[in-house]
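This section describes the prediction task in plain terms. A model, or a person checking by hand, is given the sequence of a single protein chain and must write out its three-dimensional structure as a string of tokens. No templates, partner chains or ligands are provided. The sample shown here is typical of the held-out split.
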Amino acid sequence: MRFADVIGHERAVARLRAAAARTPHAVLVLGPAGVGKRAVADAFVARLLCATPADDDACGACAHCTRLAAGTHPDLHVVARDDERRDIRIEQVRGLVRWLALQPLMAARKVAIVDGAHELNEHGQNALLKTLEEPPGGSVLILLAAAAALVLPTVRSRCRLVRLDPLDDDAVARVLAARGVPPDEARVLAPLAEGAPGRALALGGDAAAAARTRALATLPRLAAQDAAALSALAQEWTRGPLDAALSTTVAWYRDVLHARVAGDALPLRNRDVAAAVAAAAAAADPARVLRQLATVCDTIAALERNANRMLAVEAMLLQLRALERGDEATA
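The expected answer:
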């Protein structure tokens, strides 16, 4: 990965190109999940370790770039959360500190990535402070985090901050195409991605497509569903790719709101969906749709805090139905 390969994030790339010439000791890359933090970090690493950089970018052909592409460079160390855990173990941080204290084996410096610095607990973040203040041997530490508020102020203050904003739909579609996603599927997934290509990739596949179809079939008729049907739907969503169903629900209410306020549906929808959006928007109250959208977003946030998936989704569907019926008391 080189800076030239990064799609979008022009301001962040420009900042990192300039920073690479001065070799900062620590960089904190901030952005929502799936937005491309790791891709940008990998391009920065390539520039830092490349033997023959040109135009503030890695050459892509030297021994260092070749090793990085193969995932075998001895002077790059990546720390990430184990799949079965909710946080990064402090033993991983201590191992990183010990590794940084050793001499580089191939390059002029060592580089480490902490992929998910927000998943370090307070003890883990504090264990990095001395290394952030005085990195050994000119080493560079790159922290990736979902939001600045999730990183201790003492850590943030020792890093150069680089923020990644969500990409527009066209850029997301280009990223997906570069990853081998067929153009038609990329155009469908891009509006559901919230500006994060990684999220769009997770929404691909037959199971996710079925979940999206089920959500789009249910949402226009939500007011007519009884509690038993909504409970069954919640069970179905939580057994399948829930993220696909929730992303589709967010996109649905945004489309309805846009169609109600601007008078037309958002692009990149098939004819049937556009007709359903237009019909729903004709009778929609913008304030109610905003509340429905907020309800879905609150549910997504609750699920990210490890709420009970089934109960959270069922409660969301019941609240959306209550709002659709105009029953403010139960909403």
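For orientation: Residues 3-163 form a domain with the Rossmann fold fold (CATH 3.40.50.300).
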